[in-house]
Amino acid sequence: MFSRSINSLMFASCVLAFTPMAFAQQTASAQRYPERSIRWVVPAPPGANNDIFARLVAQHLSMALGQPVVIDNRPGAGSIVGADIVAKSPPDGYTILMTPSSIAITDAMYKQLPYNTVKDFTGVAMLAEQPLVVVVKPTAGIATLKDLIARAKAKPGTLNYGSGGIGTPQHLATEMFKGLAGVDIVHVAYKGSTGAITDLLASHIDFMIEPAATVIPHVMNGSLRALAVTTPARSSLIPDVPTAVEAGLPGFVLKAWYGVLTRAGTPRPIVDRLGTEISSIVRMPDVQQAFAKQGATTVVSSPREFDEFVRSEIKTWGKLVKDANVTVN
Length: 329
Known about the structure:
By secondary structure, this protein is α/β, with parallel strands linked by helices. Helix content is 46%, strand content 19%.
């Protein structure tokens, strides 16, 4: 008994001695950060919104940190492939994740994920948000959101909509529209938004609800008509298009967003450094203009604010997933 007590005391003493040393080493490492290149995992192919936004910020972040910021495109499984890489990376700030709002959706939609969205990541900064836009063909004879709802109610089960796939923000947003409007419409799932938009332009499907960056070019050239945006305020790119609430559908408020996460357990000074630099970058007028051309508005947040935001979005999208009864595994 006595020997065990001595051993316990010796172990406790070692732990107490090690803790300040480990803290000092961690602090010194954070002060030197970064000493090498930073890997920015983008869970989307080159040219996607995530990729465009990440590359816009990465150029400035490289200059601010004095080290290369290397974009690593890892698309697949609704952002899960890319997120898993970061979740299993060392917590040292040298691997960061460009995350779209779909990370909050997959948390609710997949019963088994290779990571825990809340426990395995920590927020760095929010980058931007953009509205989803309800669009139809100009030749469809639908001029307003109320017209679309009236058409759907007049022909239950015959109107169809396209999305980039089951469980995407577009799919869930339209299911939310379906519930709020009280209409019976048919979902046509595509492998990505490109095919869905192609079919909408060809009048093979009736309407879509898509992120602004994807459809605004078609709205600008007259090949699609925007009926409403889903954000609380109108989009500066299409200011004549009303919000869904203004167009007569109370409660239909939703937005796509983009931000930066890193591995949980990364030293707080490193997280704060990254967050401060990125927030400074999204305040730059040229960066704001570049995002605006893609239909997005830059957003400044602290790491802790973004953490809280992601948690609230998991609840919001989780309810939509549950209401739409969408599961994958």
